[in-house]
Design goal:
mainly alpha, single chain
Length: about 140
């Protein structure tokens, strides 16, 4: 009597429960700048998402805010996929290794002056990398 992984309807509703993933990106950025490593955050996010969902089921909430069914394996897959995509953002955008290395350049040692990017340039760089990834991901997947 386990849950079926095959959707019963071709137009099954998409799960509406979403959890903000910004904390995983910021913690990975901080952790990555300190150690040079990042975590995929899939296990942590799955546990936090399930805990949040189970907690919402137990709270005395109005019917509009209360989940009407149990947390499904499909929702867990969506949660983990989103968490990994967001958690690895600092590494994919170069904010953990490449950008700090450009700021540590020394003209006498490396033959190049340091390159400093402001917030606007870093945001534009991250948006460009994300757009480039989405465009290439669409081409590769088809």
């Amino acid at each position: 009597m386990g849950a079926s992984l095959v959707p019963t309807s071709r137009h099954a509703p998409f799960p509406k429960l979403t959890i903000p993933r910004s904390p995983t990106a910021f913690t990975n950025l901080y952790f990555g700048l300190q150690t040079g490593w990042i975590s995929m955050m899939s296990l942590q996010s799955a546990l936090l998402g399930y805990g949040l969902f189970a907690g919402l089921m137990r709270l005395p909430l109005p019917p509009a805010l209360r989940p009407t069914r149990a947390f499904t394996p499909q929702e867990n897959v969506v949660l983990q996929t989103t968490a990994v995509a967001t958690g690895t953002l600092p590494l994919a955008a170069g904010l953990v290794g490449i950008i700090p290395a450009m700021e540590m350049l020394d003209f006498e040692r490396d033959g190049e002056s340091p390159i400093f990017l402001g917030w606007g340039a870093l945001m534009a760089w991250s948006a460009a990398v994300a757009f480039f990834g989405c465009v290439l991901g669409g081409d590769v997947g088809s």
